[in-house]
Write a structure and sequence with these properties.
77% helix; 343 residues; mainly alpha
Amino acid sequence: MNFLRTNGRGFLLCLAIAIPSWLLGSSFPIVGGAVIAILLGMIIAIPLKDQGRMAPGIKFTSKKVLQWAVILLGFGLNLTVVLQTGKQSLPIIVCTIAISLLIAFLLFKVLKLPPKIATLIGVGSSICGGSAIAATAPVINADDEEVAQSISVIFFFNVLAAILFPILGNLIGFSTTSGEAFGIFAGTAVNDTSSVTAAAATWDSMWGLGSATLDKAVTVKLTRTLAIIPITLVLAFFQTRKGKTADGKNVSIKSIFPFFILYFIAASLITTISVSLGADPAIFSPIKTLSKFFIVLAMAAIGLNTDIVKLIKTGGAPLLLGACCWIGITGVSLLMQHVLGLW
């Protein structure tokens, strides 16, 4: 009861934003519920200057619910299938992740960006957009405005990719009788699953390929998702190396270790073992759907804690970083596919 008294009001406000955002996101998947929730939250936050008794519940939703979303995301990963079908795309995935992180590191210094925003944009661009940002933010102790800024940048280039990549694929001569080349391209160069799905489904419909491109793209995307694990562990290690407490003592690995990532791995193993023993993968679909809703719910809270005016004023440099990461990933993905003879 104490938990409900403390967090109930703020949680219900987030829920009131998340439900219509989820429904709108289902109707407009190229935008997605998470972005809609952030925008609605930021708009509602303008008149809501003093959150008062809602503040604890909003904070709880933006932090804890976000971690729960990442854990439940693990139930969408059958590691056997992902590893078997992802081997072909693994060199491309490794190279695109490496180039995005390298660009983020270099431009963070050149543009004098806040290090946490640079980290979130680099990780979000290279791995899987909002899910990677959701996993990374607690590890580096990013605040809600930094998360909102990063999500907004990733969203912008997701929409561009979903619209432009099918046109680009046609111009550069991807096979129109097989969805393999474009599926790998979409899976390695587009960030959020919703935009990967939109781009791949467009290619399928353009050339009458059924769901061949979509199946390939989503599998490659799931393979990229596994990179969340080493990235968050490495970031946790670096946080302990440079972190200091208020009294000057070193931060211990135990105090900031992303234990929720261990639960994410455990969830993936449960799915993998269950399916190998004959369970129908469809039984995990409701959990996967719940994980996506939890991300929308957490984004509503993050929007409520974000100053939209400040976000717009400081958005130029992060947007430039996002553009450079996006162009770098696209170029490396195409180059690697050409080198590997995939198109």
